[in-house]
Amino acid sequence: MGKKRKKRAAQVSMEKNHGYTIVVPVFDDQPIDRLVRLALQLAAPRNGRVVLVGTVLVPPDESLTTGAVEAQARRTLLDGIRERFQGEPIYIKPRIRVAHRPWLPLMEVIAAEHASLLLLPWRPEGTKAAFALDLDTLLSHLTCDTLVLSGDLPEKISRILLPARGSQETALALETALLLAKANQAKITILYAADEDRHPRSRQIYDELVRMAQGNPLIAQELRVNGNVLAAIQAQAGQHDLIIMGAAEAAPGQRAQTVGRIPHHLHQEQSGTPLVIVRTARPAPVAELRRWNENQSLPATPTSVMVDRWFAENTFSSNEFKEVERLVAMKEERGVTISLGLPALNEEETVGNVIRTIKSALMDDLPLLDEIVLIDSGSTDYTVDIARDLGIPVYRHSDILPQYGTFRGKGEALWKSLYILKGDLIAWIDTDIVNIHPRFVYGILGPLLRHDTIQYVKGFYRRPLKVGETYQAGGGGRVTELVARPMFNLFYPELSGLVQPLSGEYAGRRRALERTPFYVGYGVETGLLLNLVEQYGISGIAQVDLLTRIHRNQSLSALSRMAFAIIQVFIDHLEQRQKVKLLSEINRTMKIIRYEMETYSLEERPIHDHCRPPIITLPEYRRRYNISEADWNEADFARWQEPQLEEELLV
Q1: What does the pLDDT read at residue 553?
Q2: How many CB atoms within 10 Å of residue 235?
Q3: For the structural domain made of 153-287, what CATH number should be given?
Q4: How far apart are CA 315 and CA 546, in angstroms?
Q5: What's the Cα-to-Cα distance from 536 to each of 162, 453, 510, rounded to whole Å?
Q6: What pLDDT sits at residue 13?
Q7: Strand boundaries in 464-534, DSSP class E
Q8: What angle (nearest 5°) sits at the alpha carbon of residue 481, between those of residues 477 and 484?
Q9: CB neighbours (10 Å) of residue 224?
Q10: Which of 12, 299, 303, 593 is most buried, by the most CB atoms less than 10 A from its CB?
Q11: Domain ranges (residues) in the chain
Q12: Could you tell me if 487 and 570 are in contact, meaning their C-beta atoms sit under 8 angstroms apart?
């Protein structure tokens, strides 16, 4: 009795659960186990469930009572599925729907279950179910995302072909391909046929898709072919186990059938490679009329799909890495060395505690760090003396590579520190942290030790700022929220999931950092992100929650100069991508408003964030780290000329 009560309670819970729900209609007695497995693979990452609904299709000129025998057979089929998939999040609707038109009972179930996705089979022409299942009509009546499977899924999916056009189906097709690739440890090929696609918005969506796919380990290649789409798909089909594409795949703004000619042709051809076509939800006509009065969710884009997935998979907590012994074991297993650089300028109040805390926990007690080095930017207080008294090597950044001149700024200190720091992994943290804890270091190193594909890690945290003698919870981040994040969302949306893109705690692999240019001042954090995402894609970047960070507040005047420099960095990169033509025309000086002696005045300051070339372009660096000509390609850095001696600038 107890087992029955528990089973019934679980069934009621499943029935009432209105989370992510996939509805799978069963129209005939053909085996659907692989279709159910497909639904489970799509539901699992979202902690969703699968709802099976038995349906009997009766010809319009026959009485519905003729479906009674087939309804019994459908119940038997569903009972068998229940037994074979025990323990899976599957709910089977107890009543079999008998109808002349399939979309009517399906729409009722979709509404009742708050379905997110409908998954149904596309039977070959001539089969019994096909006479009543007009796919174009069915899809035009549905109000949730839909996936239609043509052909039989193989037991093992290793390669997925994703034909990409600039349609509104692209995001759903990409999301489906990524979910199935991860579930099956498969690889994705993106296919684009250029000759048939001249719509500018279509090309823009494809470019967005390729940019977001860069560095993603699930995407093996992008094929751009000259020729018609159908021929390109047919040529690649035999090398893949599954094809996923949009139902209509028409260019934006063009009217198209619910199911386009290419999916229809591939379905009728039955070449042996199964096909999944996707169709995004269309609002019902009444909902269309309400659009101006109700908030409507925006349609998904390839960027939103990839950023959401990146945020879920590449956002870590520092608590995941608090067992430092395991990090040390991973470090030794990989045979890497780790350096910590501490950029500093007049930090006598906090630098001693920062060094003692990190050195004791991560060098003396456990050998996670191989060296800690302070890179000073001309401190006039006791910062340098404190560091030396604690046994930490100190370098003034103006004394490093003096033949290349020097600039003021944190970015200059970081760029030159690459010449001094010897580690394979390099971490930097600010030295003004009041509540310093070892997690600020092991947190940003953890993802690099655990995941070989990650090249760069940013820290983020909650920021109660010290104003006078008190702390203001939730303060700070003004430049981030008012300047940086809006600019990232506008021009580099792949980085829009970063919680604090301007944070001062980050770590990276030497082989990535040495090939990256550095802005010398306020723009260093922004420039690193823009350059690294262009080189390695969003998959090469991760972020870690470092909990809470307390540090001193900056003046509004300093924040204004910081924002001015950061905007210049964005414009610099946009011009390199040929998005805008502004850099040669923008003003490089900023008027600072002063109020003294009851009088307003203007002070002009030059604020130009000079960009240092990738340090690997310096022959001194290559000699120091034994980098041979075979290890780097000079042609890749052709635009970076030999650095010129320049006067020191205030940035």
Answers
A1: 65
A2: 13
A3: 3.40.50.620
A4: 11
A5: 21, 9, 14
A6: 44
A7: 465-467, 470-472, 506-509, 518-519
A8: 105
A9: 13
A10: 303
A11: 17-133, 153-287, 313-547
A12: yes
* Helix/strand/coil for 255: coil
Are 221 and 228 a contacting pair, CB within 8 Å? no
Phi, psi at 38, each rounded to 5°:
-60, -45
Q: Backbone phi, then psi, for 517, in 5-degree steps?
A: -70, 155
Burial of 543 per CB tally in 10 Å (0-12, 13-18, 19+) = buried
pLDDT at 124: 67
CA separation for the pair 344, 386 (Å, rounded): 12
Inter-CA distances, 125 with 141, 258, 265, 274, 328, Å:
21, 17, 12, 15, 61
Closest CA to 145 of 48, 58, 272, 62: 48
How far does Cα 554 stand from its chain's mean position? 31
Q: What is d(CA 636, CA 455) in angstroms, rounded to the nearest whole number?
A: 19
Measured over the CA atoms of residue 40, residue 45, residue 51 and residue 57, the dihedral's sign is negative
Question: In this structure, which CATH number among 3.40.830.10, 3.20.20.120, 3.20.20.140, 3.90.550.10 belongs to the domain 313-547?
Answer: 3.90.550.10
* DSSP character string of 371-389: EEEEEES---SSHHHHHHH
Give 245's strand partners: 277
Q: Please report the DSSP string for 429-479 in residue order.
A: --S--TT--THHHHHHHHHHHH-TT--EEEEEEE-PEEETTEEETT---HH
Distance between CA atoms of residues 265 and 243, nearest Å = 13
Q: Which residue has the tokens 């109020």?
A: 595
**DSSP E strand boundaries for 164-274:** 187-193, 219-225, 242-246
Strands 611-612 and 518-519: antiparallel
DSSP 11: H
Compute CA distances 476 → 170, 479, 610, whole Å. Answer: 38, 8, 26
Instruction: Give the CATH number of domain 17-133.
Output: 3.40.50.620
Mean pLDDT, 10 residues at a time, the chain of 651 residues: 45 56 90 92 94 88 86 91 93 88 81 91 62 61 84 91 80 91 94 66 73 85 81 90 82 57 81 83 45 45 83 92 97 98 97 98 98 97 97 97 94 98 98 95 98 95 61 58 88 92 96 96 94 93 92 70 87 75 61 73 74 95 91 75 42 34
Residue 469: predicted pLDDT: 54
Are 511 and 426 within 8 A, CB to CB? no
Q: Answer for the pair 497, 448: CB distance below 8 angstroms, yes or no.
A: no
Tokens encoding 606: 């030059």
Task: For residues 186 and 160, give the distance between their C-alpha atoms in angstroms, rounded to a whole number.
Answer: 7
* DSSP letters spanning 307-343: HHHHHHHHEEEGGGG--HHHHHHHHHHHT--EEEEEE
Q: What pLDDT is attached to residue 473?
A: 39
pLDDT at 389: 97
Q: How far is CA 76 from CA 65, 92, 317, 475, in A?
A: 18, 12, 48, 62
Domains 17-133 and 313-547 share a fold: no
Read off φ and ψ for residue 373, nearest 5 degrees: -130, 135
CA–CA dist 481, 421 (Å, integer): 33
Cα distance between residue 150 and residue 499, in whole Å: 41
User: Would you call 345 helix, strand, or coil by DSSP?
Assistant: coil
Name the 3-class secondary structure at 518: strand
Alpha-carbon gap, residue 236 to 231, rounded angstroms: 9
